[in-house]
Amino acid sequence: MTRYDGRTALVTGGGRGIGRAICLRLASEGAAVAVVDRDLEAANSVAGEIASASGRAVALQADVTMPDQVQAMVREAEQALGPLDVLVNNAAATSATTVEATSPDDWDLELGVTLRAAYLAMKAVLPGMVERGKGAIVAIGSVNGRVYVGNPAYSAAKAGPVMWVKAMAVEYGPRGIRTNLVSPGSIRTENRSWTERLARDPEIFDKLARWYPVGRVGLPEDIAAAVAYLASDEASFVNGAELVVDGGLTAGMGPFVQEING
Ligand SMILES: NC(=O)c1ccc[n+]([C@@H]2O[C@H](COP(=O)([O-])OP(=O)(O)OC[C@H]3O[C@@H](n4cnc5c(N)ncnc54)[C@H](O)[C@@H]3O)[C@@H](O)[C@H]2O)c1
Q1: Domain locations in the chain as residue ranges
Q2: DSSP string, 47-88
Q3: Does domain 8-261 sit in CATH 3.40.50.720?
Q4: Which residues line ligand 1 (CB under 6 A)?
Q5: What is the pLDDT of residues 46-98, one digit of tens each?
Q6: Ligand 1 probe mutation, 24, 35, 38, 197, most atoms within 8 A of CB
């Protein structure tokens, strides 16, 4: 028996990066996975990887900021795989790097896909989970929701789930649904921000490593492992928690400590 035998999971933004790693990890432990992305080709590719490893997956296209599409993604996932046990709110995006450069559209887009979309997906899975009296929801936050490290609208949005998972935990814990948060540090993915930063400085990840007490930035698999724990029965007493997976970045200011110690 593996932790996810007979379980089903839906992962938003599952087509690449951290979402892809979460899909592959949950499937490798036995889950049937709905890979949701607005990029259907990317979702298909991940579902194909799972199928070729003898797993079970369905690829679904949805823009998770659109309430109708979110309702449809849950309906179609459950038609294809059965009732959902796990929801992972992973899709997000950012572009504006300073307060000055943040337009009202940036604000709406970044809060919309990061915060509102997660709320919409939770609302869509909750009736079924409540009826069955069980479920696990994991939100993907960020160190940006804890300390300021750039991208202000995204950071404001990522602070939201810190409180939202607590509200969920208190309100839905008694109904058998646990809600937790994973807050990653810098993770090597090909998202828009890292692609732009890498184009500017191909050494960026190596340079950032000095900020990380463990001496490296993270990998998508580091986050997938944390999600797989929190959504499993091993975490049955963990509810409303934030698991910071950042190699110690936000534990303190390493370069400051080095400087002060001489
Ligand atoms: N990469 C990092 O350094 C890092 C650090 C902290 C937190 N995170 C968080 O991890 C999560 C994944 O990040 P990533 O780096 O893997 O991103 P990514 O850009 O590589 O992948 C995100 C996926 O989400 C999809 N997506 C975006 N908007 C969508 C929408 N409206 N509807 C449906 N799908 C949508 C994209 O098509 C893409 O496949 C995000 O919540 C991000 O904020 C990432």
Answers
A1: 8-261
A2: HHHHHHTT-EEEEEE--TTSHHHHHHHHHHHHHHH-S-SEEE
A3: yes
A4: 12-13, 15-19, 37-39, 42, 62-65, 90-93, 113, 140, 142, 184, 186-187, 189-191
A5: 999 999 999 999 999 999 999 999 999 999 999 999 999 999 999 999 989 99
A6: 38
